[in-house]
Amino acid sequence: MAVPLDLDQLQTFCAIADCGSFTEAARRVNKTQSAVSMQIKRLEERLGVSLFVRDGRSISVTTEGSELYARARRMLRINAEIIDLFSNEDLAGSIRIGVPDDYAVRLLPVILSQFQITNPKIMVDVMCMSSETLLQGMHSGKFDLIVFTQGTNDEYGEHFRTERMHWVGSETGEAYKQDPLPLACGPQTCCWRKSALDALTREAIDYRIAYTSSYATAISSAVGSDLAVGWLPESAMRPGLRTLGKKEGLPPLPDAQIAILRASHAYGGIYDALADHIVASLGNLDGYDPLFQGKLQQHLQAAE
Length: 304
Hints:
This protein is an alpha/beta fold.
């Protein structure tokens, strides 16, 4: 009978894969670097494969390591669920969460405040920035959980919401009539920017980047002032903006895909409580449900 894998070794393995550093992983799992190295050596001997490629200071997972990673995370999650099942402890502790400023920036504060009311012993520290920056922060250990836009080269997020993406312009403006079409958008790393530019290119619509910012509020202000046209998912619509589309000569955009990504330690207990609350709250704002606008308006009114 095969000897079961050591969950502690899998936790360490995932921590290294998350941050790409034995030194940082040792800090995260509260072990010495030599202990971490020994755990990985034993895990590699147990499986008969190399899990990491070491190139100077750079560390990356091998093909076998990548296959193990997703499965190891599932084992860690199941382990946390079993512990929670038989635990009588109150939920308490602190969570570092990152949320994107280009998605649900008005809804998430309300959702998080509701969570704080029902879970007063859980301290939630929130940082708001772009999805790409959030992913970098997760890699460096700044967050326990992040909500981010999928399509940003990360396969381990837990997708939980899809909603329509709209072209947007000033409520009374006519920037969409200009040729070339002036655009307000995020930096080149923004996956929504790439989708929008690809859609314009396919339709042979000439455009120019008139305004660039890493901050969603700045982009929305530029659009609201009729300096340019932009794009937003349905739940991020703001006063002073209106949706644009076929009538204005603009092509359809791919849907927005929203996900949660956890650090490898962030399963069970307080982490599941917060993740489940966010998924349930945002998941109920169904952009394809005729009642969506009413539900959305209730949340937006609560945010003001």
